[in-house]
Sequence to fold (764 residues):
Amino acid sequence: MGYKITKKENLSAIDFFMEVEAPHVAKSWKPGQFVVLIVDEKGERVPMSVYYAEDGKIGMFIRRHGVTTFKLWYEKNVGDKILSVAGPLGKPIEVKHYGNVVFAADAVCAQAECYATLKAMKEAGNYTIAIHSFENRDNVYPERFLAKSVADEFYITTEDGSVGRKGHYLDVVKELIEQDKVDIVFAGGKLGSLKKLAELTGSYGIPTIVTVRQIMVDGTGMCGSCRILYDGEVKFVCRDGPMFDAHKVDWDDVIKRDARFVEQQNLARERYIAKLREKGVI
Amino acid sequence: MTRKKPKIIKERVPTPEVPVEERVKSFVEVNLGYDFASAVKEAERCIQCPPEYASCIKGCPVHINIPGFIGKLIEHRDDPKKAVKEALKVIWSDNTLPGVTGRVCPQEEQCEAPCVMGKVGDPINIGKLERFVADYARTHGIEEELLREFVSNGNDIKGKVAVVGSGPAGLTCAGELAKMGYKVTIFEALHKPGGVLVYGIPEFRLPKEILNKEIAKLRELGVEIKLDHIVGKTITLEELLEEYDAVFIGTGAGTPKLLNIPGILLDRIYSANEFLTRVNLMKAYEFPEYDTPITVGKKTIVIGAGNTAMDAARSALRLGSEVTIAYRRGREDMTARIEEIQHAEEEGVKFEFFLSPVEFIGDENGKIKAVKFEKMKPLEERDAKGKRKIVGTGEYVTLEADTVIIAIGLEPNKIISEEASSLKTNPDGTLVVDKNLMTSIPGVFAGGDAIRGEATVILAMGDGKKAAKSIDEYIRKKHLSA
Fold:
C-alpha cells in the first residue's frame, strides 16, 4: 500500500518539490483541483495544490511548515512511499477565452497552481501574465519551476528587491490594471494578500477568482471544517471551491478560521523539531 | 405431545460494563458483553416463539430468525463451538455483520420492542446475544471456519460489480455479491474502509478491531477495496459502467447540516462529523503522537439528541470537557438508543431540553464563548414522526460554552449526483430508486442513507443485501439477452 515518491528537489529556503505516483489522480486532475495526502499511519489529512499531473504522477510544491511537511522533507525520499493520496478534489477552474489573464502567487500553493493554470489558459487563446511573489532571494525558486514558459508576460517580485521587481504582486496587478491590460485575475497564496487583491480589483471592477485556503479533514464535503461565508451563504471550500469570486468572500472570517489550530500546530512542530535534534538530523 | 411449560424468568442476565470512573478516561468499549454461560442463561429465558409468529423477527428490519439463532445456543449448550457456529449460520443468512449490529442497532425499537417476554418482564436481550455470537465466533476461529465453507462453495466468476462506499450498505452488498460469485471492487473515498463505522462511531461503542475483522473477511471473499477513490471525481459513474456489469451506490448521508444562525463560523464550533472524524478516524485524542489536532475546552455544548450527539458528547467528555446536550424537544423525543442515553448520563453528560439555538456568541478572538437559545414549549399535537410539535416561547437563555458540536443531522453527499446528471435525486438529495433499488440509470443500484436520508446501520445493510439480489438478477438477465 502507499504511493511511491518518484522525485524530490529543493526549491528554496522554505519550499520543495515532490513527485508522487498516483495514477488514479493524475488521470482525471484538472487545474484548480487539489489532493489530500497523508504522510504515514499517524499522519494528518492535508490538502495540497498540484503543480502538474502527467504519466500517472503528480507534482507538488510543499512548504516545510508543519509536521506533515517536515516528515515529507526529512523522512521521505525518492523510492519511499506515502500512505495516502486522494483526489482530485474540488471543482476545476473554468478554462475559456477571457482575454488577458493574470495569475498572481505569493505562497507555495499558488506558485504550484500558476503553471498549469496559465498553460491551459494560453491553450485557450488567452494572453497570459504570470506574477510570482517571494519574500526575498532565498525564497525564490529556480526559474524552470515557474510559469515562464507559458506566460506572455512574466514577473518575479521580492519584498526587498533582491530578485526581480521590488514589491508584491499587488503592485504589479495595480500597474497592469492601470495600463488596461487585465481582463481577469486568478490568484492564490496568502489570505491577507487575497483580501487586499479583492479590494484592489473590486475598486476597478476586474473579475477576480482566487483559491481560498482553509483547514480541511476529509476534503469531500463530509465535515464542514473548511466552511466559509460566501455571498452571505455558508459554502464548503473543498466541495464548492476551492476557487471563489474574491469579491464575495468574507475575508476576515476566512483569515480567522485559518488560524484555528495554530497553537497545536506550533506545539507539534516544536516537538518534531526536538526529535530531529535528538536524532542529529538538524 | 404437550409442550413443557417454560419457566418464566422476568429479569435479564446482566452484561458487565466498565466502571464509569474508568471508562470516562479512555476510549475502551463500555459494555463487555456476555460469556458463553451467561449467554446461554439469557437464551434460555426465550420462550422460543415459532418463527411464523415471532414478533421479534417482524421487528427486525432484515428479519433475522432470532428465535432460530437463540434456539441453537440452547440446543447445543454443552458444546459452545457448535452452538455458536450453528447460531452464526442462522444469523448470517440475513445479516453478515452481527458484531456491528449487535452493538449499534436500536434493539429497543426493533426486535426487542415487541418481544413477548417484555410483557411480563424484560424483553430478551437480543442485541447482546447477537453480539455474543459474533464476538465468540470471531475470537474462536468459528467465523473463519464458516467463511471457508462459503468460499469453497464458490464457483466461476459471474460478473464484475463496483460498489461505491464502504459503509454498512456497501460492505453488505459487496459481501453478498462475492458469496454469489461476483468479482467485487469497492471504491472508498477515505484512506480507511468502513464509512460511518470507522469515522463516525467511536471506539467505546464499536471497537475498530471488529470492523477490521469484517473487512478482512470481505477481502478473503475476494473483494478488492480501492481506497482514496472519490467516485464522481477520481473516476466517474460512466467510467465505472464501462468496466463493470453493475454499480451499487452506498455513499450514505455524509454531509452535515449546519445551523443557519449567526456565528456559525466561530472557532471551536464543529459539526459532529468533523469532531468525530478527527477523534475516531484520525485519532486526535492521541495528539501530538498522532498529527491531527482537536481543541476541546472546558464546557462543551452538543446540539441534537440522536446517536451522533451522544457519541460526540461522550467523546468530548473523554477529552476532558464538561458536556451538556441541548435539545429543542423533550426527553422522550430524543432519537438516540436508550443504552447510549443511559451511558451518557452515567458518565456525567448533562441534558437541557426545550432549548433551540438562535445565535453563537464569540469572543474578540473569534472563539465561541456562549450559545443563545430560545426556550421552546411542546404542543399536544404530534408531527409525522410521532414527536410532539414545539413552538418558541419568546424567552431566551444564554449558556456559556467554549466548544460547540452540532449534531442536528446529515444529508447525502452530492458529489456523484452532481457529476452524473442523469442520476435522478429527490429534493432532499437522496437518490431515486425503484422497488429493486435500481436508480434512474440502468445497472446502477443504491441503498442505505444515500436513498433514505438518515436511517440506521441495519436498514443500510438490509438495502445492501436486497440490492445484491437485484444486481444478481439484473446481470443474469443482461447476460441472457446478450
The domain at 100-258 of chain A is CATH 3.40.50.80 (Rossmann fold).
